[in-house]
Specification:
about 25% strand, Glutaredoxin, alpha+beta, eight-stranded mixed sheet, about 575 residues, 28 strands, seven-stranded mixed sheet
Amino acid sequence: MGDIDYQSLQLEYRPVPADAPDHYPVIIVGAGPVGMSMALDMAQHGHKVLVLDDDHTLSIGSRAICFAKRTLDIWDRLDIGERMVRKGISWNVGRIFFRDEEVWNFNLLPESGHRRPAFINLQQYYCEGYLYEKCEADPNIEIRWRNRVVEVQPANSQVTLTVDTPDGPYSISTDWLIACDGARSPVRKMLGQEAHGQIFRDRFLIADVKLEADFPEERWFWFDPPFHPNQSVLLHSQPDNVWRIDFQLGWDADPAEEVKPEKVLPRIKALLGKDVDVQLEWVSVYTFACERMDSFRHGRVFFAGDAAHRVSPFGARGANSGVQDIDNLAWKLDLVMRGRAPDALLDTYCEERQAAADENILNSTRSTDFITPKSETSLLFRNTVLRLAKQHDFARRLVNSGRLSEATFYTESSLNTPDVDEFTATLPVGGVAPDGPVSRDGHTTWWLSQLGKNFVIAVFCKDSLPDAASLQQMANPDFQSLPVRCILVVSPELEGDIAATGIEYVVDQDSILAGRYDVRGGACYLIRPDQHIAARWRNVDIVRIRQALLRATSTHQEVPSCHN
């Protein structure tokens, strides 16, 4: 399907059919990247989903443009990642400039053997357009545009909504309500909830400009450049020869004045050259905040994305953390809806994603403090660090132009089974399972694409296979109806031996996974449906695996409640 003008796309309002259900298992409020990703995830688990959105257009302007490798891995699982990457601008390298010289550059993904880059840049309207088309093609998903939720009435057994439309209001109920309705979240207000945090006293100008340029596909950040003295500037490339430029303006800047072309164009030409031919596509002035709700769960209502938490845009932690929210919530909600896990499992969404929000807020706040120093002392510190960064590694570690989004590791999660065997500390329990190339049926593919949406027992065999009894148990696992698959990851030398057992396997052709999983003589990992590591051992032990599965699904254990 060719790209269309998603910014001008008018999505069709359809009256609710007279025979439409008045109850849905899952209702999602908000058809942005987070809401539509959640819809796809639940639909692929086999659940009927209704998405309500008060608008009938997609994103105007680029807005969120930087999508991290972890987000791409999640979208790959939802079968939409490849389209995002094909359209997006892939990049791994960032450069830091102080005044008129480069002081440091970094590579976020220096090693080979990864399916996806560290980041892609892709305008949010493309992201939303691709997700929308994927949702439209899924028979388990219905999206209703110009359907504005005006009342939310939670109860113990369901949530009832009043929805306003051009044809008048109607009432509908759901077992589970997911609020993905943005930073101003009407659903949050209807429940009498607030987000708490810090508003930063500074203003930034975002300009999307179209031009022909030969800049490399990298992230460039300037501190105190000669073309914009005493402030900072960020430059990113996007598809279609569109460039994103962020200019720090200061708190006293007048937003209404700064978006006028006669104010914007001189700033751009000071950076790019006075003779460059540029066309303004979108301009906005913003301030930003770091804040979150006290709890992301309120009975049968869950909050995700900006509705639950928001951060400054430096570091690209907003949309990426929102997609990680739904990656965490969907598999847990699926198991609870199927009766395969207790309600307590849903409380771990709060436990894990609130900790993730705190981590993102901390990193975002530190970035903001470095980029916009608030005192002469902090300004002196920052500029000294930047001067030293050109020659000294210790100073480079202090430079902060936005600590870029990474997957949160749930190292303190109550779902983890602590190590009893020795493993490297660089990949802890609670971390995201690394990807890498593998061979299956003679064809090269990627490890994460083999995991699917279930728990996976991954047994890494470098020198020998597990004993016959363990192989038999793996071939016929009994894990109390939990969705579990067993996959052996073998070295090329063992492929002939494993093929005869009938157990599912892949070949670690170049031993990349053996290194990333610290396999040594062997290793057994329990990987959650969201690809986080729940437990690991040096040898296969079905009793321990069963205990770890019970723990990873909050069965027979105490979990701190986040019910309100």
